[in-house]
Amino acid sequence: MADNPQAAAGAQNANQPQFALQRIYVKDLSFESPNSPAVFQEQWKPQVNLDLNTSHSKISDNQYEVVLSLTVTTKVGDKVAYLVEIQQAGVFMVQGFEGPQLGQMLGAYCPNILFPYAREAIDGVVGKGSFPALMLAPVNFDAIYAQALKRKQDEAQAEAAEGQAH
User: Fold this and answer.
1) What is the tens place of the pLDDT at every residue in 144-163?
2) Mapping DSSP to helix (H, G, I), strand (E, B) and coil, where does residue 77 land?
3) Residues in contact with 11: Cβ distance below 8 Å, sequence separation at least 6, in sequence order
4) CA dist., res. 39 & res. 110, Å (int)
5) CB 84 within 8 A of CB 96
6) CA distances from 5 to 11, 14, 15, 17 (A)
7) Residue 163 included in any domain
8) CA–CA separation, 53 vs 38, rounded Å?
9) CATH number of the CATH domain containing 100
């Protein structure tokens, strides 16, 4: 038993994983409506395509910037009604997570936090372009991260097998 229970508790807390959102911001945002005003005359039956990507970089010992990049291309027939690109970013303090846990935090957990902000920004800019509201469906970043991890593992195994075959 420690002589100073508060000091012992403080030492235990220092080893505990810690996570904190420090800042959320739009890093880049663009909106194009290349076929306006003609596209406003078309019957509104849009085909929406969403491309997304995540990246992260280390800022300092326990700080990371995570960037969620979304590109929404909306077409009516064969004409592009609008194109929205956003890089929604955040600065996160992540401490006490290593290896796969850290990868999961930066590759899935943080993008889950950023997505609603990106969705709101996209909806706002689409409305300012005089188009009907666009509410993107939720995205399962855990599943996307797991697929990316499996793809990397499969590629590594294929390269290893190819190296042994030669």
Assistant:
1) 999 988 888 888 888 877 77
2) coil
3) none
4) 36
5) no
6) 10, 14, 16, 20
7) no
8) 31
9) 3.10.420.10
Q: Is residue 161 part of a domain?
A: no
Average pLDDT on 15-35 reads 95
Other CB atoms within a 10 A radius of the CB of residue 130 amount to 11
User: 37: cis peptide before it, omega within 30°?
Assistant: yes
Cβ neighbours for 115, distance < 8 A, ≥ 6 positions apart = 68, 88, 138, 139, 141
Residue 115 near residue 54, CB atoms below 8 Å: no
Give the pTM: 0.82
Give the model confidence (pLDDT) of 38-92 as tens digits: 999 999 999 999 999 999 999 999 999 999 999 999 999 999 999 999 999 999 9
Domain annotation covers residue 57: yes
- The residue segments making up the domain with residue 89 are 17-150
The single residue listed with the structure tokens 């997304």 is 52
Q: How many domains does the chain have?
A: 1
In a domain, 90, yes or no: yes
